[in-house]
Amino acid sequence: MNKPKHISFLIRHLQPSGISIVVLNLINSLIEYDLFVDLVILNANDSPYLSQVSSKVRVIDLKTPISGGNLKNPFQVIKPVFQYLREEKPDFLFSNIWLYNILVIIAKILANTSTNLTIIEHDHLLLGLTKSPKSKFFSKPLLTKFLPLLVRIFYPFANKIIAVSKALARDLEEEFNFENGSVKTVYNPIINNKLRETIKESINHPWFESEQPPVVMGVGRLSKEKDFATLIRSIALVRKHHTVRLMILGEGVERKKLENLIKELGLEDSVLMPGFVINAPAYMVKASVFVLSSIREGLSNVLIEAMTCNLPIVSTNSRGGVLEVLDNGKFGEIVPVGDPETMAYAIIRVLNGNGKTFDSQWLKQFSMESVTNQYLKIVNGDK
Known about the structure:
About 35% of the residues lie in helices and about 15% in strands.
């Protein structure tokens, strides 16, 4: 009997984020295919998702001292990853730690193991570094300053590079002069039985009772790139024509600024930010419109969740895979980034019954079954 292949997924943390959901879905699916699966976390802390990891998956916390996105000493990542690779020698390592993927490649080279290394890029953060103003160069940590150069040097040492959207794959190849077609696209596995079950959960909230005004929904980290400020401003404009409420699910560093904006616009009774909830789709399905206001998105998991909830969509044409998810506007209203007036008009069109419908066959490419099969092909050496 052949020994099960040993595969590992490396992630920075398992806190609320799109990457956490993607990795969680993948490991819980792949463990059912005669594989030995590790979830290796740079710093686990107190994650709300740890309880959702299959008991069959081995969880390894490297206890790397990373605060937020900051890392003063690269060897804080290189050393524990090196030790893990030397001691455990997994057959495959899928690295999902964005700016620090470069350090995983260095650790793998130093460990001198036969582990097949796949780098997975979920966002345009690397590309953002190459576009930063020169005036900010000297204020950056040393690793961040030279990361674009290091990517060009070390990424070719990875066995495979995956991007979560075609747009991101194309941008990576162009920016870092990678060979055309060298960055493969594998979409995120979002639609699974857990999502379908969550959508059916009952939610006891006064805003969702009968005879209440329609609710516009936004979901994501309260961060600059999600640009919820534009969404809030658009709701102020919508309310000149419709009685409507806005609920934003998520937590983050921009909370205070957003709260001040809500107060400034006199929307205290019409905009609610209850924070992070682990069952967001159960809330989403109760809404009348879903709005994605982001400046950039690798793919946008919440957009796929909203479509699975059969919610009419309004979305910015943000950098990344949003247009791929919505088939270039076939399945949702597309508006410019940072334009509250156009966003408001699009929301009003949807509230007036002019939302676009979806093709259920289209969503299958984001299903657990479809994406798991693509990862199994990588593990089994299929092309």
